[in-house]
Write a structure and sequence with these properties.
It comes from Pseudoalteromonas arctica. This is Orphan lipoprotein. By secondary structure, the protein is α+β, with helices and mostly antiparallel strands. The chain is built from 3 helices and 10 strands. The strands form 2 sheets. Strands 3-4-5-6-10-9-8-7 form an 8-stranded antiparallel sheet, covered by helices on one side. Strands 1-2 form a two-stranded antiparallel ribbon. Helix 1 packs across helix 3 and helix 2 crosses helix 3. The two termini are 33 Å apart. The N terminus is likely disordered.
């Protein structure tokens, strides 16, 4: 997977992000070696992420839909999807909620591109408010973790090889301090 990461990152840096039409946008400018690279994230993209983070305190009640029949966990389908079409809210034994989405991806190239695109969006929305990002990469996986403090939920974006395919998972989980 490492063979695709560096070219993908370079391509994103050089090409920048294209903005969606008819949406209000904020623009961040980064200057590197006498070259200005503009990146754009729509307010809608950041507000969805911020709404999810804010929803953690209430157990994501505002995005829960129907309850999933499962005798082992309390789980609901969610009406907000960061990736894929199947996102859930799960209540653990300590009564702490987490939000998770998972989607299968066909090719390694597509997997790396989609992971890096979402990681970039998260980075642009979160690091300006003090969040710290760490990224870990192996031959078959990429993990991007965003942490603010010991009281705020942790955001994890992970992409892993599963059999002959790949899967990307997005999760907002209880803080590290709990």
């Amino acid at each position: 997977m490492k063979n695709y990461i560096i070219p993908s990152i370079v391509a994103f840096i050089l090409a920048g992000c294209t903005s969606k039409t008819n949406q209000t946008t904020t623009t961040a400018t980064t200057t590197t070696t006498n070259q200005s690279v503009k990146t754009t994230v729509t307010l809608d993209e950041c507000s969805t992420i911020n709404n999810l983070i804010n929803g953690y305190e209430s157990g994501f009640n505002s995005i829960k839909t129907d309850k999933v029949n499962n005798q082992f966990t309390n789980q609901w389908r969610a009406n907000t999807h960061i990736i894929g079409a199947t996102c859930t809210v799960t209540l653990n034994k300590s009564e702490q909620a987490s939000y998770q989405c998972q989607t299968p991806v066909n090719t390694q190239t597509q997997t790396v591109k989609s992971h890096q695109k979402l990681a970039k969006q998260l980075r642009q929305c979160l690091t300006k408010t003090g969040w710290f990002e760490s990224q870990k990469e192996t031959a078959s996986s990429i993990y991007s973790t965003f942490v603010l403090d010991t009281k705020t939920p942790v955001i994890t974006l992970s992409t892993n090889q599963e059999g002959n395919g790949f899967s990307t998972r997005f999760e907002i989980a209880p803080p590290l301090g709990l």
